[in-house]
Every structure is written in structure tokens, then in C-alpha cells.
Design goal:
The protein is mostly beta strands. It has one helix at residues 3-14, and strands at residues 16-25, 29-30, 34-35, 41-49, 55-62, 81-82, 86-87, 98-101, 105-112, 118-126, 130-138. Strands 2, 3, 5, 6, 8 and 10 form a six-stranded antiparallel sheet that branches. Strands 1-11-4-9-7 form a five-stranded antiparallel sheet.
């Protein structure tokens, strides 16, 4: 067995973490605050089922030392902002702020954390369907 390859494999596995942000939700709402300070980028995986009209997801970030309350108004002592993402399944790399889900299936988006310490996923509007979102932080 190649010891250098084994070490590299361990390092790659340690370079990413997966967090279930929203799990089979059927109502609007927010995920918990997810720590991302240690990552250069975050992949946002969305799974939608039973969708005919769908819903809209938003990604919020904060660079505050402590996690803000993403469900409260933005304020000097509760700072956060909406962050654009890139649809990794599209050839169009134009950043988008609202992730519109209007069909069953899965999609992936890339979030450049730009020094953010916290991420929150919001199901902002929903007509129908069940939504699950997983975030994966990366350093590579």
C-alpha cells in the first residue's frame, strides 16, 4: 500500500464537512446557523420532491464572530446579508441570489464564502413540494 496516497486520502476527507441544513421541510423557514469560517467555498445541494410550482431558497451569510439570529431583522448587532451562488449544473456562471426550485430533482450550487463565518439557508417561499438542503464546506 502506498503510504503517501493514504495520507493524501485522509487529508482530502478532512478538508470537507457535510451538514444537513434543511431536512424534508414542507414549510418556509430557516436552517440553523452553520459555521463555515474554515472553508474557502461551500457547496449547497438541494433535493426537491412532490414539486409542481415549487419554492425559492435564499442563502444568507455573516462574518460576525458569534452567529447572528438569521430570523431577526438585520441590525448593527445582528449583521448578515444575502449571498449569491453559482449553479454548478449550468454553463451560465452568472451569480444568482434566489434559488428557484420548480421541478423534482437535485441541483448543486457553489457559494464563495468570502470570509464568511456563518451560513444560513432559508426556504423563503413555497407553493408545494418537500425540500432538503445539505451544505458541504471545502478547502480544496
Amino acid at each position: 500500500m502506498n503510504k503517501k496516497l493514504d495520507v493524501l486520502k485522509r487529508d482530502v476527507r478532512a478538508a470537507s464537512d457535510s451538514v444537513s441544513a434543511l431536512s424534508s421541510v414542507t414549510a418556509t423557514g430557516y436552517s440553523k446557523a452553520i459555521p463555515v469560517a474554515q472553508y474557502a467555498a461551500v457547496k449547497v445541494n438541494v433535493l426537491a420532491s412532490s414539486v409542481t410550482s415549487g419554492g425559492v431558497l435564499k442563502v444568507w451569510v455573516s462574518d460576525e464572530y458569534e452567529a447572528p439570529d438569521f430570523t431577526s431583522a438585520i441590525a448593527v448587532d445582528n449583521w448578515y446579508q444575502q449571498q449569491s451562488v453559482i449553479d454548478t449544473g449550468s454553463t451560465d456562471i452568472t451569480p444568482i441570489t434566489d434559488i428557484t426550485i420548480d421541478a423534482n430533482g437535485s441541483k448543486s450550487y457553489e457559494l464563495n464564502t468570502n470570509g464568511a463565518k456563518w451560513v444560513c439557508i432559508e426556504l423563503d417561499s413555497r407553493t408545494d413540494g418537500t425540500f432538503s438542503v445539505k451544505t458541504i464546506g471545502y478547502n480544496l
